[in-house]
């Protein structure tokens, strides 16, 4: 039975995701941030749905949920065969199916915080020992490819690069971490639900010192940390945004988000002009907003065998106004 075979294959794939050592950490993060809507991100919920799937439900889903007017078909072809390609597209993808207008309700993926929150998440995974994972999160209204978004990309490369100020202190000087990343999560449906997060990990013995050092570094970031903004970082950004025209998949994927979410198309060459013209003053303005958001409205999630909330609160006067959660 092809249906049973496919369901089994999909279940195996989902189970692999669930068996990831850090899966429970991110599920608990989503529960805290999104309340009941966390189930959108929970693979266990997908397994429940998978068990009930049959061919009738698949056809029903296609007829009721797949909106042809929102569909994008990307075709790679030899430009010498343009007319032949057009005929084939019309033959196989010229949909004349009338559909009822469906109002899509997008879930609220947002939670308002008015002070720094610190959330302990118990690590019950026997495969992870003497290690603490950290995710420092904050919501921020970021529109896709807006000036704000581009500034944050620039700051990501400038501050979180191996030779940036954060790595120089936390790894080179103090030896607390191996790496640290700034993740930009842009919600293309509703920019208010966008966010960024700093992720890293350390040994249990260094956790209190690392959190204190990280808070101090973020709080003290200033214009002096932007001194190299016109050096090798710009070259890195050029390489990052350059289109490899020989790779047609890369070329077409670049435009998908613009078309699918009805965003004005911005060519990479246009984005590079913004990067080239950013001044230290421009970047400092966004850096101050970034700092203020993390310090006053962020959430520090940590995944650990031990609850360090009491020790953290005693370790720094800064944390007295913070909200600790178990």
Question: How would you portray this structure in words?
Answer:
This protein has helices spanning 2-18, 23-34, 43-52, 55-65, 82-93, 147-159, 165-173, 207-220, 232-241, 248-260, 268-277, 280-297, 309-315; strands at residues 117-122, 131-139, 180-185, 195-203, 299-304, 323-325. A six-stranded mixed beta sheet has the order 3-4-2-5-1-6, sandwiched between helices. The chain is globular and about 70 Å long. It is an alpha/beta fold.
Short description:
Helix content is 48%, strand content 12%.
Strand order of the largest sheet: 3-4-2-5-1-6
| Structural classification | alpha/beta
**Separation of the first and last Cα atoms:** 47 Å
Strand content: 5-15%
- Unreliable spans are none
Radius of gyration: 23 Å
- Mean pLDDT across the residues is 87
What is the string of SSEs from the N terminus onward?
A: HHHHHEEHHEEHHHHHEHE
Shape: globular
Q: What composes the largest sheet?
A: 6 strands, mixed
| SS summary, helix count | 13
């Amino acid at each position: 039975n092809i249906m049973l075979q496919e369901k089994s294959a999909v279940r195996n794939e989902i189970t692999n995701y669930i068996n990831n050592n850090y899966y429970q950490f991110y599920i608990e993060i989503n529960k805290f941030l999104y309340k009941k809507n966390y189930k959108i991100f929970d693979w266990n919920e997908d397994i429940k749905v998978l068990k009930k799937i049959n061919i009738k439900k698949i056809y029903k889903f296609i007829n009721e949920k797949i909106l042809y007017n929102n569909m994008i078909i990307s075709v790679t072809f030899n430009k010498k065969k343009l007319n032949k390609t057009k005929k084939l597209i019309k033959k196989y993808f010229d949909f004349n199916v009338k559909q009822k207008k469906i109002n899509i309700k997008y879930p609220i993926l947002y939670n308002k915080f008015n002070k720094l929150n610190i959330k302990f998440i118990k690590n019950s995974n026997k495969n992870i020992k003497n290690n603490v994972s950290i995710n420092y999160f904050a919501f921020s209204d970021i529109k896709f490819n807006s000036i704000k978004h581009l500034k944050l990309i620039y700051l990501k490369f400038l501050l979180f690069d191996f030779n940036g100020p954060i790595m120089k202190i936390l790894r080179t000087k103090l030896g607390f971490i191996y790496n640290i990343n700034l993740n930009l999560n842009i919600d293309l449906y509703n920019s208010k639900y966008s966010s960024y997060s700093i992720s890293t990990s350390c040994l249990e013995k260094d956790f209190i010192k690392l959190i204190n050092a990280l808070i101090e570094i973020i709080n003290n970031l200033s214009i002096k940390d932007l001194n190299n903004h016109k050096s090798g970082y710009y070259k890195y950004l050029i390489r990052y945004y350059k289109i490899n025209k020989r790779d047609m998949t890369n070329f077409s994927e670049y435009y998908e988000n613009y078309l699918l979410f009805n965003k004005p198309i911005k060519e990479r060459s246009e984005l590079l002009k913004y990067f080239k013209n950013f001044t230290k003053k421009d970047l400092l303005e966004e850096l101050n907003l970034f700092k203020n958001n993390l310090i006053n409205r962020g959430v520090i999630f940590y995944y650990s065998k031990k609850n360090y909330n009491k020790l953290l609160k005693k370790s720094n006067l800064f944390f007295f106004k913070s909200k600790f959660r178990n």
